[in-house]
Amino acid sequence: MGYISGTDRGQTSLLPARIEDYVAADAAVRVIDAFVDGLDVVQLGFRRAVEASTGRPSYDPRDLLKLYIYGYCNEVRSSRRLERECRRNVETMWLLRQLAPDFKTVADFRRDNGPAIIGACRAFVLICRDAGLFSARLVALDGSKFRAVASGKRIMGRREIEEERLRLDRKIAAYLSGLDTADASEPDDAADAVASAIASLESRQGELDRMARRLDDEGRTTLVDGEADARPMGKGKGAKPPAYNVQTAVDTDTGLIIHHEVTDEATDNRMLHPMASATKDELCLESLTVIADAGYSNGAQASACEDDGIRACAPSNRAVNNTGDGTLFDRRAFSYDAEEDRFICPAGKELQRKQVISKERSVLYAAQAADCAACPLKQQCTTATRRYVQRHLDEDALSRMHQRAIPDMMRLRRCAAEHPFGTIKRRMAGGRFLTRNLKGTRTEMALSVLAYNIMRTINMTSKPA
Ligand code: SF4
Question: Whose CA is nearest to atom 5 of ligand 1?
């Protein structure tokens, strides 16, 4: 019977196949092509968006943007791999009309057009909204850590800086003493090499000085050498490699990422209002309902959301008020009397407002020592002379936010917000950036989110009715 055979490689064709025929009518690459062709690249601020009338012609930024979006949709992110794809992948040949820019041109485009690429990502969201694909009825917030380029070995504190400085001092001293004892007949080349080695060690010393100053100025304990914007991040007592905190606001009905941000915040605790208000502004909405997990629990942020017309739903995550080894009354056993601004304890005595703790944005209430001394419940209440209870300054907003976070909402949040991160991390080698610092990582994440949203939209609209 034999095998199914292909055509002979030397066979000439009387009617050469068009490259158009190699790309399926419903291929994702056609959506990328149509989307980018519809963008106003001048308004978005792409470099070389207007053809130069003189000099060597440059690549159209639309072509390079198409190449990057295609790459991020297909797990090809490095400029060298994209260059290779231009020469061997039929879809990229079709997309770029057989142009094959070299890797440096490709890399320079991503480096030089960060804000414009972020604008293109935003433009796609607005196109989807205008097409009625989503209404942002309910938006789920979530954050995830993405690894920086820098390795964990580059995390330096004051001790590491001091140790390296001493090592450098010893090396410089060794070079200098070598120079002093060198034979006068030593060739000039060797002396030049020593001088250049010393200069490079001194330049590293300068870098260490700058890092030490930055630690003092910013009140930090560590810095990532070579990638100043990255921060050691991780959960609990596990490893904390240099990373960035990527925040997303996801439409729960469609799974589209409406807004995203790359930040150097180690936790999500201060991200509720910035993310919710940026999403609301991006979509020009009057009001917005957002759901988030307990990591976003923050009284000041809850109040800011209410002031801004944002209905936030997040379980509160409070660990204030001493319950001893767990046997003492929890704060919930004390009822708050808003009219009198006081607490009533389980024995019916009052705890009066004592002081404001501005650092924790809370108010401390204290029982009378005499009441506690004569109280039959004291063993269950406090080991001190009297009981204290703390109340957050934004307690009411925090409680309202907590009450709205019903289990169904939280289930919805989990389903909507965690799936996009899973997909994006899979396409980004497990969630690792190729570019450095906030400038580079923001551009890279915009490409990832744009690729995710395009593929998501294709999946949504291609489903049979
Ligand atoms: S120990 Fe003090 S605060 Fe606690 S129940 Fe008794 S009186 Fe109230």
Answer: 347
> Where along the chain do its domains lie?
19-112, 135-149+236-315+405-436, 153-224, 331-393
Distance of CA 378 from the midpoint of ligand 1 (Å): 6
Amino acid, single-letter form, for residue 134: F
Determine the 3-state secondary structure of 247 from DSSP: strand
Ligand 1 neighbourhood includes 365 CB (under 6 angstroms):
no
Q: Is 131 helix (H, G, I), strand (E, B) or coil?
A: coil
Mutate to test the pocket of ligand 1, among 386, 388, 389, 390 (most ligand atoms within 8 A of CB): 386
- Three-state secondary structure along 133-199? CCCCCCEEEEEEEEECCCCHHHEEEHHHHHHHHHHHHHHHHHHHHHHHHCCCCCCHHHHHHHHHHHH
Ligand 1 within 6 A of 378 CB?
A: yes
The DSSP line for 262-319 is EE--SSSTT-HHHHHHHHHHHTT-S-EEEE--GGG--HHHHHHHHHTTEEEE------
Enter the pTM of the model: 0.85
Ligand 1 site-directed mutation target among 328, 381, 383, 385, most atoms within 8 Å of CB: 381
**H helix runs in 28-150, sequence order:** 28-37, 41-44, 61-73, 79-88, 90-95, 103-112, 114-130
- Cα of 344 vs centre of ligand 1, distance in Å, is 9
- The CATH code of the domain at 135-149+236-315+405-436 is 3.30.420.10
pLDDT per residue as tens digits for the range 6-54: 878 887 776 667 889 889 999 999 999 999 999 999 999 999 988 888 8
Q: Is 308 exposed, middle or buried (0-12, 13-18, 19+ CB in 10 A)?
A: middle
Residue 238: other Cβ atoms inside 10 A:
7
pLDDT digits 0-9 by tens, 327-370: 788 888 899 998 899 999 999 999 999 998 888 788 999 999 99
| Whether residue 389 has its Cβ less than 6 Å from ligand 1 | no
Give the pLDDT mean for 404-414.
Answer: 91
| Binding site membership of 367 for ligand 1 (Cβ less than 6 Å) | yes
Helix and strand counts by DSSP (H, E) for the chain: 16, 13
